Amino acid sequence: MMATELHFTKGHGTGNDFVLYTDAQGTNDLTPAQVAAICDRHFGVGADGVIRAVKSANLPDGAAALAEDPAAEWFMDYRNADGSAAEMCGNGIRVYTRYLVDNGLVELGPGDTLAIGTRAGVRDVQRSTTGFQVDLGRWRLEPGEPVVRARNLAVARPGQGINMGNPHVVVALADAEELAAADLAYIPQIDPEPVDGANIEFVVPHEPLVADGVGRITMRVHERGSGETLSCGTGTAAAALATRHWAGRGAPNIWRVDVPGGTVGVRMFAAEDGEHVSLSGPAELVFEGDLSLG
Ligand SMILES: N[C@@H](CCC[C@H](N)C(=O)O)C(=O)O
């Protein structure tokens, strides 16, 4: 059923902003056009995406989450600003956790873990010193070397495909000037074009790359379905993983990633089923409102 009246909360993680609403029973879905209207920065609330808080049991996509972990009571139904569905959102899941906690929908004490269903599988979230930390799970370097062209960049550059549950292509640029010059208001071109599209991260390593055992990079991103955003959580993890891959042996497993909207932490660690990557950073709720979708 389509919603017409909506009580919503606006939140963000390092400037990656979202409109969140509760639909526990799964009876108040939005059409892609409604999502796009809400996310419109001139005629709507304005956001990079919409997050519907729905119980996993009340959503077809939630069945796989409950089969993976019966504790995943809540599902993050994530939509990009153009209304398309995405598998995962690393900033969004931290903001979603704060939303669930602040609205009394879950309890999460220090050291507790909250399992959340997503289209990429169940993700575990905990409180951290900077806000929340999410285990983004297993990741995969994609084969091949796609070529990326962005407006105002003099040369095409090779990219590294990385699957974080959602698709990414990471591109290393020469320096901060080149990073600033890229015009990400236009969709960068990837050759060959990924079948499902991709989020594209442009990265510059700090000089030196590693300080006190922590790798340091700066990143800008063009998100699939949303355009340039101030941050992308899964994108920061992909960028750190790609940079570690390029740096080779001895590169650190702890990274600090600066994005236009702030800074997040990325950590690679050994888990039972192989290496995982986690993301930590802030999660803020900014205001609430009611909207009529007409
Ligand atoms: N901003 C997100 C990613 C949101 C989904 C992405 N645009 C996609 O289509 O995969 C993040 O913080 O990870």
UniProtKB/TrEMBL annotation:
Keyword match Amino-acid biosynthesis: yes
InterPro entries cross-referenced by the UniProt entry: DAP_epimerase_AS (IPR018510), DAP_epimerase_DapF (IPR001653)
Active site: 89, 232
ATP-binding keyword on record: no
Keywords associated with the record: Amino-acid biosynthesis, Cytoplasm, Isomerase, Lysine biosynthesis
Site positions (Could be important to modulate the pK values of the two catalytic cysteine residues): 168, 223
E.C. number(s) listed in UniProt: 5.1.1.7
Locations listed in the record: Cytoplasm
Catalysed reactions listed for this entry: (2S,6S)-2,6-diaminopimelate = meso-2,6-diaminopimelate
Residue sites binding substrate per the record: 16, 80, 90-91, 166, 199, 223-224, 233-234
GO terms of biological process kind: lysine biosynthetic process via diaminopimelate
Lineage: superkingdom: Bacteria
Subunit composition and interactions: Homodimer.
Role this protein plays: Catalyzes the stereoinversion of LL-2,6-diaminopimelate (L,L-DAP) to meso-diaminopimelate (meso-DAP), a precursor of L-lysine and an essential component of the bacterial peptidoglycan.
PANTHER family associated with the record: DIAMINOPIMELATE EPIMERASE, DIAMINOPIMELATE EPIMERASE, CHLOROPLASTIC
Assigned protein family: Belongs to the diaminopimelate epimerase family.
NCBIfam families: DapF
Name used for this protein in its record: Diaminopimelate epimerase
UniProt organism field: Agreia pratensis
